[in-house]
Amino acid sequence: MDLKEWFNNRKKNNEIKQAKQILSTEEYCALWVSCFQCRELLYSRDLRNNLNVCPKCQYHFRIGAYDRIEQIADANSFCETENDLVSSDPLKFFDTQSYVDRLNDATNKSGLKEAIITGTCTIQGLPAAIAAMDFAYFGGSMGSVVGEKITRLIEMAIVKRLPVVIVSSSGGARMQEGILSLMQLAKTSGALKLLHEAKLLYISILTEPTFGGVTASFAMLGDIIIAEPGARIGFAGRRVIEQTIRQKLPPDFQTAEYLLKHGQIDMVVERSKIPQTLHRLIEFHQNSVPQALNVEKLKNSPLNHVKV
Amino acid sequence: MTSNKLPPLDFELPLSNLNSQIEALERQLPNNPQLEQEISELYKQYESLKKTIYGNLRAIDRLAIARHPNRPYTRDYLERFDPNWLELHGDRHGVDDMAMVCGLVKLDNYKVVVVGTQKGRNIREKQLCNFGMPQPEGYRKALRCFKHAQKFNLPIITLIDTPGAYPGMAAEEHNQAQAIAFNLFELADLTVPVISVILGEGGSGGALAIGFTNTILMLENSVYSVISPEGCASILWRSADKVQDACEAMKITALENKELGIVDEIIPEPLGGAQSGWDEAAANTKKCIIKHLELLSKETDLVKHRINKYRKIGFYKD
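The joint structure predicted for all components is written out below.
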């Protein structure tokens, strides 16, 4: 090997090294995803084009709140509300890390301000008030802000006479806000009662996973309850139940299909069919109640502080 | 009152030591009359120590008192409120959950419907009552009684002492979450006054399912939290022995709940906790309930009052 050749080789080797470095493990993983269910290796762009549903086994991946709304709402029809509402730390909560730090972490990881986004949109042409929860932010847990945003969305829907769609994905109430989180169950249920009295439609969509305080309040109060295939939905977690009753639970326990069999939900609808299902439901219930009905009632309702 | 002799709670150890000292001296008293002076001295010491200890309870101490096996339970209160109270049974769909007690009670001049969770005193009772953890059927039984009260325009009193809703397989199959959610939904627009009292443990959704009320009262040593301190410690600290930290962090005591604006009034307990004086605890509770029934009777729109109370709860930056 002469000197020239040696230099050339060195150059080539460096280039190869650099080429390898371009794709760090993280970036490589972002390109390729292994399906949690069938282990099929999926190209992430294909997966995204397929609404984050595995083309082979139909496993429904978790998706973010904005992706969810993009899939359901008509293009450019979504108009976000209450985007400025953010959590404070009323209890000065500190476990191994302070709540404030955890909130910042959650924001950095997910790019969201809270575990829910709310707004108005049209679904295949029909207007609706919509909310989507995001499990990536703090496990989708419900604290003061989530409760408040849902309540404000419902109040706006009553004033504007819109049907409400809430897509849930949550581990339950947020421990870091203690009893205040628990009270959000009552707050949101109270708001839904007013929506009920205004005779407006509320469709609850349950997605992987929906548990605890969220199922024990607004998620289970839908006039119509829809779940995504394979989504796990329940009150207590599987592990807690297994520890309590000291026996193994069936593998399909608490899945959407199990709930359907036990009469807890109306239908299991795959992700690609959700927009058209919502459209059909909203269309079916439209104009079934005369608009004038509630004007008188609204005057006396606790909602009279709501700005129209 | 039960005569169950139980080991003292951790923070009561100095008291029980002093007590055994007094007892030992009292045994010698017949042979040794000059000990009388010393004994009365020790009694004074005992009383002042008791005051100091019970005046400086930590959250975890209150948790221990709230769960004390000699603490009066819902049925004990009901017997003291009205010895002639009438119990109602069943959810009308096939089950009578004994963890939920419902009845018609006269509180002096007020006729009320009482719904409360019941823990059970001995092993057999505990099993019957499922350790105070209602199944979905229990919540539906409660709902039936709420509707009964609504029909006859009777105020509702709910007495809460539960670790939470039962996390079992059948409970999930019978839709525990929906049972709780639907109770909240239906409680929202009852036109009668509804008052809840946390007697001991107020455990999460299982407590709130009968606790969405116009007025919330808490006994001095009761606790009310979003998750059991044990659950919180194991999730956030990943360690079972951080219960004390979890108790402090979650602000579970009556006083902290009052500061947060959740609780309307704290009902005083006798010194040494409700377990040391059932009659006094029941009398204080009854007095406080009647006071708040009178206050609520002046309220013109109870639905609005109730929904607005919870509408305001929550802290956020706008």
